[in-house]
Amino acid sequence: MIKSSMITKSIFLLLISAFLMATLSASEDGSGAYIGVGMGSTAYVDDNFAKEQLKNSNVTGTVESRGFGTKLFGGYQFNSIVGIEAAYVYYGNFSPTSDYTYSAQGVSTAVNVGYGFLENQLRPYILIGLGYVFSDFPHEGVPVDDQSPTLHIGFGLDYTPKSLGGIGFRGAYDGNSFSYLLQRDTPEEKRYIQAFGLLYVGCYYKF
After folding, report:
1. Do 35 and 21 share a structural domain?
2. pTM for this predicted structure
3. pLDDT above 60: residue 24
4. How far apart are CA 81 and CA 116, in angstroms?
5. Which CATH number belongs to the domain containing residue 140 in this structure?
6. Rounded CA gap, 158 and 112, in Å?
């Protein structure tokens, strides 16, 4: 009876050990899905669009407005090097002139490329992909085509300590760059480069 009980316990312990080793080996390569949230400072650069096209005397130079933004992001790491990531960003409210304030938000899908250090607990990365910006910018009287996808780029650092069981932290900057193409009655056209950026800190959970 004693020997049988000891054998049963030993087999049970071996099974538990094998399961734990398999779990650890699966996570050591950095793979897995994750979801997180971040918040920080946003910036908008309009390439003199408001000054030149809205003809507002209150605009005296290139508009560079700043605000407060939030980000929801999630993705999947195939290994410690390559993954994919999707995000939704609320860039906040901007006032390119004293006459009005508008809000902007965006979505994106990107490739996440990086390299893991310290047993994949520390991972610098870059993002390269496509996005789309939505805003309630008042375009009345200013015919522009701004419905094309945007270039989404970014870089950051993820820290996922093993002691926290999947909880990680991120410091990063990313943004969307796009353009307004002014449509005139003459053959002459002018394109204005626009950019929204977010410098943020975040927290995520990796499954």
Report:
1. no
2. 0.74
3. no
4. 7
5. 2.40.160.20
6. 12
Answer yes or no: do 101 and 180 share one domain.
yes
Contact between residue 189 and residue 58 where contact means Cβ atoms under 8 Å apart:
no
Q: Tell me: do 170 and 180 sit in the same domain.
A: yes
Question: CA–CA distance from 162 to each of 21, 34, 64, 121 (Å)?
Answer: 14, 15, 41, 7
SS3 119: coil
The reply to whether 127 and 182 lie within a common domain is yes
The number of folded domains in the chain is 2
Q: Are residues 10 and 49 in the same domain?
A: no
d(CA 67, CA 128): 24
For residue 123, give the amino acid letter.
R
Torsion angles phi and psi, residue 75, rounded to 5: -175, -165
Structural domain including 7 reads 1-29
Place of tokens 């996922």: 160
Q: Quick one: DSSP state of residue 81?
A: S
Half-sphere exposure of 127 (CA within 13 A, CB side): 27
Token pair of 74, please?
Answer: 């999630």
| Mean pLDDT across 193-198 | 86
